[in-house]
Design a protein that fits this description.
Elements (H helix, E strand, L loop, with lengths): L9 E7 L19 H9 L1 E7 L5 H10 L3 H4 L4 E2 L2 E2 L9 H7 L3 E6 L14 E4 L3 H16 L7 E6 L34 H4 L7 H31 L6 E7 L19 H4 E2 L1 E4 L21 E8 L3 H8 L14 H4 L11 E5 L4 E5 L3 E6 L4 E5 L17 H21 L5
Parallel strand pairs: 1-7, 1-8, 2-11, 3-4, 5-6, 5-7
Antiparallel strand pairs: 2-9, 2-10, 8-10, 12-13, 13-14, 14-15
Helix pairs in contact: 5-7
Length: 422
């Protein structure tokens, strides 16, 4: 039984779906959208500017967020039923671990992993793809705790669907005079391997304008929902003892490389995701009467590379729990406390299945291998927009060999640890 005076902090994992880093106005929005509520998190917390998902697609990425393992290891290499089965509850996930640690666990919103959420260790859970309902359910959970003395802190996942509803933009609409801001639109068509080449489209700029405008509207909508949600958290009395982790499961191409949406490729538009961690904010309710973990930094932007595979170890560390041996991530707490500013992972890995695509990314170079033998190699230091494929460049042969060997080792690890490999 936890101590009656359990002073450990609450932890809120706040997720959006298919949101690019550059949709956030405080981080340099490319979409002309204001995001005041996410901006407030950036001002109050630590932003990891070079965070990458483990798979640029919903279910696999979310399996990492729930298990701290790569999608293949968690048995979710593809989207739910396309072709992956529901996430196996035998996974030692964050819900079970936090409940075993004495936390009250709750999940509201998009799940997209199949089966019963409660089977994964959540005491309170409701799957929902209507964002207004998601925030109302989450707020009710907090309000119901407001006047009651609870023995346990809570771990709560609130998962919004937007801006994923981008898929419902009207392709017949046009925005006259629009020009995409991307710098990789003139990449030679013959430099694309066959798989990403098949995803490229030849749309007029005016159609891309409608795409961008609708995407910006969905981002603005989810930002408003986040603002209402955080107001409820504040008015329920929990801001002063709650760590907030804000992230997205993956990004969107939005017309970079002349590609819409997401797909079987590993460009930064889909792999790079927002990650902001906000320590408890005491200024809203005066002095905290219970002892908290050191609050950490605020308003800091870190440029080292990390991964969504680090979120589960970070949550466990904030709760005073060890990372499980099968997890490949690292706790970000030393970075949150200002003790480190380097990369959490020298190489970040990501995967896609059907067809299989793998990425090995350093901050200066990215290597991508496709199922049909196609390869891409980008010097990110000189070419951050991934405009020049150097996979066949003899001058880059050594770095290609290095990243290819690292990827071979990573794939071998996945195959050893796989729950189910497609």
């Amino acid at each position: 039984m936890p101590d009656m005076k359990d002073a450990r902090p609450n932890i809120l994992l706040l997720l959006t779906d298919q949101q690019r880093v550059d949709t956030i106005s405080a981080l340099g929005s490319q979409f002309g959208v204001e995001t005041p509520n996410i901006d407030a998190l950036v001002r109050e917390g630590v932003t990891f500017m070079d965070c990458h998902c483990t798979a640029p697609i919903c279910s696999p990425s979310r399996s990492t967020l729930m298990t701290g393992r790569y999608p293949t290891e968690a048995g979710m290499p593809g989207n739910l039923y396309s072709p992956a089965p529901p996430l196996d509850p035998s996974n030692v996930g964050i819900g079970k671990l936090m409940r075993a640690a004495g936390y009250e666990t709750a999940y509201h919103g998009k799940w997209h992993l199949g089966g019963s959420i409660q089977a994964h260790g959540f005491d309170t859970a409701e799957e929902c793809s209507h964002d207004a309902t998601t925030r109302e359910l989450a707020a009710r959970f907090w309000r119901d705790r407001d006047w009651i003395e609870h023995e346990r802190p809570f771990f709560h996942v609130v998962s919004f669907l937007d801006p994923h509803d981008l898929y419902f933009y009207d392709p017949a609409e046009r925005v006259e005079g629009f020009q995409r801001p991307w710098k990789n639109l003139e990449r030679p068509a013959d430099s694309y391997p066959a798989i990403p080449a098949s995803k490229r489209v030849d749309w007029p700029e005016e159609r891309w304008g409608a795409y961008h405008r609708f995407y910006a509207e969905r981002v603005a909508k989810v930002d408003r929902d986040i603002g209402i949600l955080l107001d409820e958290l504040r008015c329920s009395g929990f801001f002063s003892n709650t760590w907030i982790i804000f992230a997205a499961d993956h990004g969107d191409m939005a017309g970079e490389q002349n590609i819409p949406f997401k797909g079987s490729f590993m460009y930064d538009g889909v792999t790079r995701v927002p990650l902001v961690v906000v320590p408890p904010r005491t200024r809203f309710l005066g002095d905290v009467t219970r002892k908290l973990q050191e609050a950490g930094q605020r308003g800091i932007q870190l440029n080292g590379q990390c991964s969504l595979i680090d979120i589960v170890p970070t949550i466990l560390d904030l709760a005073g729990q060890p990372t499980e041996p099968e997890m490949s991530g690292a706790s970000l707490l030393p970075w949150l406390m200002g003790e480190r500013s380097d990369s959490t992972h020298e190489i970040a890995f990501a995967e896609w299945h059907g067809p299989r695509v793998f990425m090995a990314r350093r901050q200066d170079w990215k290597y991508v291998r496709y199922a049909d033998g196609g390869e891409e190699l980008f010097c990110l230091q000189e070419d951050p927009h991934e405009s020049v494929n150097r996979a066949d460049d003899p001058a880059a042969a050594a770095v290609k060999a290095e990243l290819s060997a690292a990827l071979d080792g990573h794939i071998a690890q996945l195959e050893r640890n796989a729950v189910q490999l497609f």
